[in-house]
Recover the amino acids of this structure.
DNA sequence: AAGACGTGGTC
DNA sequence: TGACCAAGTCT
């Protein structure tokens, strides 16, 4: 009651003075909120800053997004990671426009029926775009409220999420929903930091249970670290009169579906990877590749989720006769590719080592 | 409910 | 360097 009202008031006042100035807060429509929320999923504000405006310029509204090709959309966001979210967003736009709409629906239930929109994003759209009292519990909110109330649960469980949403709802009874949402984001991002929080700058310091108990570092309860796996990725450079071979990853690939890349093969060891890569390329192109001696052209490190990758670019020589088929392209430079290009391929290509000639 | 999915930045 | 983190969703 008065406790919650006081928290909401302090939070709102703090936000008025210390809230961040961000591009996606300038003019807000349901569509622009949606776009920014998708881009910001598991992605730093710094990374999104450089991409948000270009995206909105290229796809200004729901109808433009629905009309665009998936290749165009992925090209616009290549490098941001977690590409399923953008494919889902594109599908959702098609569904909505195909159903005769020209903007997002205004209820959490309808929003959550759309691909790529879950509890968090539906709450963000409802509170930020429609000023509805619907919680949007992200990592910031989990940390701020987890410490404030010394909550042992995590939002990863259904019960945990419910508990956090209930706390946000209490605040929203005493404050403007969009202000509460953004204040919690910003407090988490600039004051209630994961490590070394700046508690002396916090408007809620007097009410923070974790702080009173000297247990700030115990909330949220740490996740179990996932163990990393080392793999080798052998990547092949195959030339012809028309340039270098690139191909398109299948639409049902678990990683980076629809992205263009130099042929690559994951393996436990280099030699193993080379053999697999040669077999793969021969099979798909119907070509014959004779490697008497492997020449390494470039090398790079890359990480994909829990995989630590040692990426090696090797020369597969020059092909004379290759059949053309869908999803295969010969180009002089990756920039000529009419679609999104895999980051590994870009890393290996960008730094053609001294021996890049073959 | 745990694990997959990208990438870049920080301490 | 390595561990951890960033406005999550889906299976």
């Amino acid at each position: 009651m008065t406790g919650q009202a006081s928290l909401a008031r302090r939070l709102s006042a703090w936000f008025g003075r210390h809230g961040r100035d961000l591009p996606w807060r300038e003019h807000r429509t349901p569509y622009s909120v949606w776009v920014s929320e998708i881009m910001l999923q598991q992605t730093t504000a710094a990374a999104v800053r450089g991409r948000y405006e270009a995206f909105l310029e290229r796809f200004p509204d729901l109808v433009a997004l629905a009309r665009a090709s998936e290749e165009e959309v992925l090209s616009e966001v290549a490098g941001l990671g977690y590409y399923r979210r953008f494919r889902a967003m594109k599908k959702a736009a098609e569904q909505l426009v195909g159903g005769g709409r020209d903007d997002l629906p205004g209820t959490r239930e309808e929003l959550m029926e759309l691909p790529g929109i879950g509890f968090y994003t539906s709450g963000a759209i409802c509170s930020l775009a429609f000023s509805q009292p619907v919680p949007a519990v992200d990592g910031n909110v989990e940390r701020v409220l987890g410490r404030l109330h010394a909550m042992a649960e995590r939002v990863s469980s259904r019960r945990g999420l419910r508990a956090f949403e209930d706390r946000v709802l209490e605040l929203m009874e005493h404050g403007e929903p969009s202000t509460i949402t953004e204040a919690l984001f910003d407090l988490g991002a600039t004051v209630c930091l994961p490590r070394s929080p700046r508690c002396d700058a916090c408007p809620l310091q007097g009410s923070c249970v974790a702080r009173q108990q000297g247990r700030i570092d115990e909330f949220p309860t740490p996740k179990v670290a996932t163990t990393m796996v080392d793999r080798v990725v052998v990547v092949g450079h195959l030339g012809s009169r028309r340039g270098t071979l690139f191909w398109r990853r299948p639409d049902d690939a678990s990683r980076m579906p629809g992205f263009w890349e130099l042929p690559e093969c994951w393996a436990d060891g280099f030699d193993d990877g080379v053999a697999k890569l040669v077999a793969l390329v021969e099979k798909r192109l119907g070509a014959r590749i004779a490697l008497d001696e492997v020449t390494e052209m470039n090398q790079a490190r890359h990480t994909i989720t829990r995989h630590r990758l040692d990426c090696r670019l090797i020369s597969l020589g020059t092909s004379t006769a290759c059949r053309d088929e869908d999803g295969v392209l010969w180009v002089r430079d990756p920039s000529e590719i009419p679609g999104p290009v895999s980051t590994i391929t870009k890393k290996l290509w960008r730094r053609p080592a001294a021996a890049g000639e073959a």
